[in-house]
């Protein structure tokens, strides 16, 4: 009440005189100083708080200071199913499995094109086999027809028939050689592959002898995925010695006495084919092989020397 | 003596010197980092207040006491000294 009257009614001169009067006493001055300081401090604080509050309310503070940091920016995940970023490591196989339109087998998407190539016979290798097979089936009637219609002395036609005959013979040789090769231990993998692919694809459809021969020269482990047996060599790196042994035991078990008679214990079967001479069949074939080897070499050399003969 | 203080304060306002002192205090508090500290305080309080709808009054009541304690002694002493000498030297005019 009194304060109000003073502040409102005092003129500038009165205020000045009052002020000087108060300042006579230094304690009053100190007290006034503290009071003024508090007032000043409140003012400054208020100003800053106004500023801040305004910033918060209008979203300016967030804009100026940027987005708030995440609590755990890069937490390393340490579980077995995920990688360190927490992403799942499970393969997406269910999605990427396609079924082959030719053989109706599930094939992984990444292997689909190669599989199609093989399955439908478009590859370099399979096409050669396929064309040969087609040739062997289709050529015979045409060539006979050519021989039968021998009236005209067309040199080209004769040459053509000659060529056909030679090719036919070669095909026959091929066909004859294959089973022999199966018996002697020197067949190359490629041939074995072809035989395996041409013939039955599972052990169920094979005879005991075929099984034995196959297992002598190739790995033979049955794949879980394709249900086919491995046609690589007995030392194929994809399968372990244990797998091979297990397959041999399981496949040859029904015919155990036979296989034992032939000297085909699983241990021996997994060893290289040359080291199993006890089997009478293979030993005889080896003899045959020895007899045959030199002319074969000769043939090869001749072919190499005079390729014109072939044409 | 509030009347005496008010008279001194009133005269300081009328002379325009109060604004000078206020500006000086403000600058000193910014220089020494006090303002940033107070801002941090405010941010913490806003964060604690989950709803995000903090009123200005509650902000003032929560922050002011702590802010007062945060003022460095050197700044406070300088200000007090300057105001006091100002008041005392006014007397002589």
UniProtKB/TrEMBL annotation, chain A:
Residues 187-202 have a biased composition (Polar residues). One of its GO terms (cellular component) is SAGA complex. One of its GO terms (biological process) is regulation of transcription by RNA polymerase II. Keywords: Activator, Chromatin regulator, Metal-binding, Nucleus, Transcription, Transcription regulation, Zinc, Zinc-finger. Coiled coil: none annotated. Residues 128-202, 227-311 are annotated as: Disordered. InterPro entries: SAGA_su_Sgf11 (IPR013246), SCA7_dom (IPR013243), SGF11 (IPR051078). The keyword Zinc applies. The long N-terminal helix forms part of the 'assembly lobe' of the SAGA deubiquitination module. Component of some SAGA transcription coactivator-HAT complexes. Within the SAGA complex, participates to a subcomplex of SAGA called the DUB module (deubiquitination module). This is SAGA-associated factor 11 homolog.
TrEMBL record, chain B:
Keywords: Activator, Chromatin regulator, mRNA transport, Nucleus, Protein transport, Transcription, Transcription regulation, Translocation, Transport. The keyword Lyase does not apply. It comes from the Eukaryota. InterPro entries: TF_ENY2, TF_EnY2_sf. Transmembrane segments: none annotated. It is found in: Nucleus, Nucleoplasm. GO terms for biological process: chromatin organization; mRNA export from nucleus; protein transport; transcription elongation by RNA polymerase II. Gene3D superfamilies: 1.10.246.140. One of its GO terms (cellular component) is nucleoplasm. One of its GO terms (molecular function) is transcription coactivator activity. Its main location: nucleus. Involved in mRNA export coupled transcription activation by association with both the TREX-2 and the SAGA complexes. The transcription regulatory histone acetylation (HAT) complex SAGA is a multiprotein complex that activates transcription by remodeling chromatin and mediating histone acetylation and deubiquitination. Within the SAGA complex, participates to a subcomplex that specifically deubiquitinates histones. The SAGA complex is recruited to specific gene promoters by activators, where it is required for transcription. HAMAP family: ENY2_Sus1. Component of the nuclear pore complex (NPC)-associated TREX-2 complex (transcription and export complex 2). Component of the SAGA transcription coactivator-HAT complex. Within the SAGA complex, participates to a subcomplex of SAGA called the DUB module (deubiquitination module). Belongs to the ENY2 family. This is Enhancer of yellow 2 transcription factor. It comes from Bombyx mandarina.
